[in-house]
Write a structure and sequence with these properties.
The chain is α/β, with parallel strands linked by helices and 454 residues long. It is built from 16 helices and 22 strands. The chain starts with a strand and ends in a 6-residue tail after the last helix.
């Protein structure tokens, strides 16, 4: 695939690194000569030290042959202009990172499409959505929404008291009844296993399951995690993320408290959040944490604009007895440190942005979906071609056609999402999500008689 990236900050550089290693023909346009030099010394990509919002520069980068343009500069206007030019050149996929809340609130939603954008990435809202997944299912180890958001990927650590402990996958399927839940991966002692039906789920395993969104209540039963609202949740900060979290967390708790350190921002937040208790205060002050009785909350999230204050408030909240603390940090090197200090989840906005964009790339290492570990398994999407050997065959007979261990994670058939069973039959034009070993992708592609798809 030919891909043009405009902007070589943390997100742009990481995308260029991944895509070039996957064999995609990648060009990067970046105004900073320092960043261009760093890319040239480390990556096998075409680098152009210019402003990407220029048709001549885009042509130098190969826009005429490009199948995807990714605009991730710090400037919203530049990203929109790049996508608009890309549309005029006939590029099919045009991704823009948009930070401005005013821009993201454009109505109707089609406004971005008219500007040439096919996929909008809003870092702040992506962070909010990511955090809410962990609040929705406490204790979850991994949380991603895939296949256009219709399928949930969730990870959970198995303990002795769970109904699925000691059961085979076949027996687990019996427990799910009509709910569509498929365990696609087991991580045992740091090793990833593509499980067969006879695999037994053991205490200490981490399972990765794919399910329909309406199957989450049944998944809760399997892992002995009851549903219901929390009594109270606390978020601190003076940012878009803090306000949007407070607004959204009301769906998960009877009482939501937003502690805002800035008087003007707190007053504005209170005016727009009628169902949220907004308090003026600084959560680096132990007395403030005691005032909101942070020890009684199952989650404390620090989402302020000052990273150092965020770190301090998280540590103090944990020390005061908050059950779970969520950290937002753009520094990957601090992730292990935060976990060692008792911070339960580390949310990296740059990583989330990269993961969101990678969902639109043809091959996804499952490590791009699993945030805290490196798993040597590939997730690949195929469209079943007219000459495929699997058409009209049930999944349980696939083993007769291929000598590789693969897992069919989901099937997208028109507007219908299918979480497959052994009796599910493949049809032409099905879009199939396949988990396999890295070296097996080509053989799997031959089986389905198709090309991987964007």
């Amino acid at each position: 695939m030919n891909i043009v990236i405009v902007g070589a900050g943390v997100v742009g550089y990481s995308l260029a690194e991944h895509l070039s290693r996957q064999g995609h023909r990648t060009s990067v346009i970046e105004k900073s000569i320092h960043l261009c030099s760093e890319i040239n010394s480390k990556l096998d990509v075409l680098t152009i030290n210019e402003n990407g919002a220029n048709p001549r520069i885009l042509e130098m980068a190969g826009i005429k042959e490009a199948e995807m343009v990714i605009a991730v500069t710090p400037n919203d206007d530049t990203n929109l202009v790049v996508c608009n030019f890309a549309m005029q050149y006939g590029v099919l996929r045009r991704i823009a990172r948009i930070r401005s809340l005013k821009l993201s609130d454009l109505q109707p939603p089609a406004s971005f499409a008219s500007l040439g954008v096919t996929h909008v990435i809003e870092p702040e809202m992506e962070v909010v959505d990511n955090i809410l997944k962990y609040i929705e299912l406490p204790g979850v180890t991994e949380a991603e929404n895939i296949q256009m958001g219709n399928a949930y990927l969730r990870g959970y650590r198995i303990t002795e008291d769970m109904p699925i402990t000691g059961k085979t996958l076949i027996e687990t399927n019996e427990l799910t009844k009509s709910s569509q839940i498929l365990i696609v991966l087991i991580i045992r002692n740091g090793k990833a296993i593509l499980p067969r039906g006879t695999e037994i789920i053991r205490p200490g395993d981490e399972i990765i399951a794919i399910m329909r969104d309406d199957s989450l209540p049944k998944f809760r039963e399997l892992i002995n995690q009851p549903s219901g609202k929390f009594k109270k949740l606390v978020v601190s900060g003076d940012t878009i993320e803090a306000v949007e979290l407070a607004r959204s967390m009301h769906d998960f708790a009877d009482r939501v408290i937003l502690v805002d350190p800035k008087a003007d921002h707190a007053q504005e937040a209170a005016a727009t959040l009628p169902d949220v208790e907004v308090l003026l205060g600084d959560c680096t002050d132990v007395e403030v944490l005691q005032e909101v009785r942070v020890r009684d909350t199952p989650f404390f999230i620090a989402a302020g604009s000052d990273p150092e204050d965020n770190i301090m408030s998280r540590l103090l909240a944990k020390a005061e007895g908050a059950q779970r603390v969520i950290a937002i940090s753009n520094n990957r090197r601090h992730s292990k440190l935060f976990v060692s200090l008792g911070i339960d989840y580390v949310i990296n906005p740059n990583t989330i942005t990269i993961q969101t964009i990678m969902r639109n790339i043809i091959r996804l290492p499952i490590a791009s979906l699993l945030s805290l570990k490196s798993v040597n398994i590939l997730v690949t999407r195929f469209i079943i071609g007219p000459k495929s050997a699997v058409i009209d065959l049930p999944i349980k007979l696939i083993g007769n056609r291929i000598k590789r261990s693969i897992i069919i994670g989901s099937i997208f058939r028109g507007e219908e999402l299918i979480i497959p069973s052994g009796d599910t039959i493949f049809r032409e034009d099905d879009e199939v999500l396949v988990l396999s070993q890295p070296g097996d992708t080509k053989e799997v592609g031959k089986l389905f008689g198709s090309q991987t798809v964007i």
